[in-house]
């Protein structure tokens, strides 16, 4: 008998179960749509986003911007210097210079602060992706 009770919901879904006199629940035919639209305000682009945009549109120009960023890095924080390497590695990867991109991403990972886990993880993953793309799985 417990087995039959366990099958009752399944049988009810396919219409083979006896009616228990319970009311049927109507399911909505269309999704619940918000009355007010959600407005997302654009955030101003920071130096990393500006550099990455340049590296995506014109990798050579993005490389130039990133190299200038890294060159003035003595006055910047560790996170800023690491972000400069992130941009440079992206520009190099967009030019199919995978070995140089891998080295640049790894250097940026080593520059980032030890407690900046997200930036270090992102740079490490990008270094790994560049190595795999270059055919260096080791």
Keywords:
single chain, 138 residues, mainly alpha
What does this structure look like?
The protein is mostly helical. Helix content is 62%, strand content 0%. The protein has six helices and no strands. Helix 3 (59-71) runs antiparallel to helix 4 (78-94) and helix 4 packs antiparallel against helix 5 (98-111). The longest helix has 17 residues, at 78-94. The protein is elongated and about 80 Å long.
Spatial gap, N to C terminus: 60 Å
Radius of gyration: 27 Å
Overall strand count: 0
What structural class do the secondary elements suggest?
Answer: mainly alpha
What's the pLDDT, averaged over the residues?
Answer: 80
**Count of helical segments?**
6
Q: What is the global morphology? A: elongated
Q: Any low-confidence stretches, pLDDT <50, length ≥5?
A: none
Task: Please summarize the sheet with the most strands.
Answer: none
Range of strand content: under 5%
H/E element order: HHHHHH
The helicity comes to: 55-70%
Question: Nutshell version of this structure?
Answer:
By secondary structure, this protein is mainly alpha-helical. The chain has helices at 2-14, 47-57, 59-71, 78-94, 98-111, 117-133. The longest helix is centred in the middle third of the chain and has 17 residues, at 78-94.
């Amino acid at each position: 008998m417990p087995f039959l009770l366990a099958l009752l919901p399944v049988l009810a879904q396919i219409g083979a179960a006896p009616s228990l006199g319970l009311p049927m629940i109507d399911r909505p035919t269309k999704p619940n749509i918000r009355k007010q639209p959600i407005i997302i305000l654009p955030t101003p682009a920071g130096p990393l986003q500006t550099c990455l945009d340049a590296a995506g549109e014109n990798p050579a120009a993005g490389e130039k911007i990133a190299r200038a960023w890294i060159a003035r890095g003595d006055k910047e924080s560790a996170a800023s210097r690491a972000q400069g390497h992130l941009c440079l590695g992206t520009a190099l990867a967009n030019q199919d210079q995978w070995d140089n991109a891998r080295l640049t991403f790894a250097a940026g990972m080593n520059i980032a602060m030890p407690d900046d886990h997200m930036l270090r993880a992102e740079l490490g993953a990008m270094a790994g992706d560049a190595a795999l793309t270059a055919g260096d799985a080791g």
